Amino acid sequence: MGLLTIIRKNRRKEREMRILFLGLDNAGKTTILKRLNGEDIMAVSPTLGFNIKTFVHEGYTLNIWDVGGQRTLRPYWRNYFEQTDAIVWVVDSGDRLRMEDCKQELHTLLQEDRLAGASLLVFANKQDIRGAMASAEIRTALDLDGIKSHQWSIMSCSAVTGHNILEGINWVVEDVAGRIYYGATSGSAPILAQPPPLAQQFTA
Ligand SMILES: Nc1nc2c(ncn2[C@@H]2O[C@H](COP(=O)(O)OP(=O)(O)OP(=O)(O)O)[C@@H](O)[C@H]2O)c(=O)[nH]1
Ligand SMILES: [Mg+2]
């Protein structure tokens, strides 16, 4: 039995998922996580390294890695790729000027071998900002339809209002669970048959 098979079996037993939050700086990655964790979202500052948050959600332990997105930090993203089950790519929907940069970074990321097979959720964040790009517009701007290597979805959201944050996390958990935990064993159908409760301390 190969090492990867053993690791996969153990993780399946422990019902763990590793989720990587990436995106350009100022996109709102840390704010989304603070919102999920019920923390004060006014007290965020740019991430210069990384944060890890662990949530138990729908019986799965989610290990979420939130890595700083400043240009000088992006070369370090690769240090976090190992065993990633899902990527959450956070976009500042009000930042039209950097949408091309955002697209380039995303498509470069997806070429990484170690991320092959990871689910991809694009969070079109900051929808509460006037003039924010709609998710359909961002889908085109980031050429999401050109992505054939990963299962992906895009969801508009706002870390400030809480809109769709949990729905996005649900999609990630369902997609990963369907692939790793169920697909490989029984191939059974819907994973989250009932809408899950809000993540423990989440307040909308
Ligand atoms: N209006 C609005 N502002 C937001 C939203 N989410 C985040 N922000 C603000 O955007 C700024 C950047 O948020 P962060 O969470 O630090 O962004 P980040 O992606 O973690 O940035 P780095 O750590 O530098 O990679 C902060 O001033 C947040 O208050 C949102 O949904 N709406
Ligand atoms: Mg941050």
- Note the run of SSEs as H and E: HEHEEEHEHEH
The major sheet is characterized as: 6 strands, mixed
Strand content: 15-25%
Pick out the low-confidence regions: 184-204
Distance between the termini: 46 Å
Helical content stands at 25-40%
Give average pLDDT, whole number.
Answer: 87
Radius of gyration over all CA atoms, rounded: 16 Å
Q: Care to describe what's here?
A:
With 204 residues, this protein is of the alpha/beta class. Helix content is 27%, strand content 21%. It has five helices and six strands. It has helices at 3-14, 29-36, 99-109, 135-141, 165-182, and strands spanning 16-22, 50-57, 60-67, 86-92, 119-125, 152-156. The chain has a six-stranded mixed sheet, sandwiched between helices. The longest helix has 18 residues, at 165-182. It starts with a helix and ends in a 22-residue tail after the last helix. Residues 29-30, 46-47, 66, 68 line the site of magnesium ion. Magnesium ion is lined by residues 29-30, 46-47, 66, 68. One of its GO terms (molecular function) is GTPase activity. Belongs to the small GTPase superfamily. Arf family. Pfam families: Arf (PF00025). This is ADP-ribosylation factor-like protein 2.
Q: Secondary structure elements and their pairing?
A:
Blueprint: H1 3-14, E1 16-22, H2 29-36, E2 50-57, E3 60-67, E4 86-92, H3 99-109, E5 119-125, H4 135-141, E6 152-156, H5 165-182
The structure holds guanosine-5'-triphosphate and magnesium ion (MG).
Protein name: ADP-ribosylation factor-like protein 2
Pfam families: Arf
GO molecular function: GTP binding; GTPase activity; metal ion binding
